[in-house]
Amino acid sequence: MMMWVSILSMVLVSCGPSYEGYMTRSYTVRGGHYRPMQVEQALQYRETGIASWYDESKYFGLKRGNTSLGEKVMPWHVSAAHKTLPLPCVVKVTNLSNGRSLKMRVNDRGPFIDGRIIDVTPRAASKLGFKKHGLTEVEVEVVSVGDGKHKRKAKKKSWFAWW
Question: How far apart, in whole angstroms, are the C-alpha atoms of residue 158 and residue 133?
Fold first, then answer.
């Protein structure tokens, strides 16, 4: 019984957001310097490009990756990494080859491979229908930026805006 309580508490601790506000500080990875967007710019963000998936975790906490926000990444999480969006934010990712879409939390940095705009977790890749292929063309649109009292929602565009 104690073992199950211990496992359940590990699961609950690893779930949910642990960062309030948003992170927009510049950073350097592999010799590349990246400057994240400001919140106002990110709230208007929409881009089409290549998505990939990455696995930073293993089962039962034997090896868990940490995101740029210090959050644990577990195999059942649906989250993503982006080079220049403020962290955290929520994006809607649509797989353009099959029309599947999914909202997910961006809480990490990457992908650091030219030509890719977003990395998603294995579960997100499965739900979007491209895990077996590894890469797919997607549209990424910001839904909100920040957590807690700092959360800002993107404004929905009406069809009148196109006229």
Answer: 34
- Residue with more model confidence, 12 or 126: 126
Alpha-carbon radius of gyration of the chain:
16
Pair type for strands 101-108 and 152-153: unpaired
Strand, helix or coil at 161? helix
Residue 162 included in any domain = no
Closest to 147 (Cα-Cα) out of 20, 18, 14, 15: 20
Mean pLDDT, rounded, for 152-162: 69
Domain count, the chain: 1
- pTM for the predicted model, two decimal places: 0.80
* CATH number for 38: 2.40.40.10
Query: Which domain range does residue 136 map to?
Result: 2-154
Over range 98-114, report the average pLDDT. 95
Phi, psi of 132 (to 5 degrees): -65, -30
Confidence of residue 56 (pLDDT cuts 50, 70, 90): low
> Under DSSP, is residue 125 helix (H, G, I), strand (E, B) or coil?
helix
The structure tokens 């009292």 sit at 149
- Are 72 and 16 spatial neighbours (Cβ–Cβ below 8 Å)? no
How far apart (Å, rounded) are the C-alpha atoms in residues 62 and 139? 34
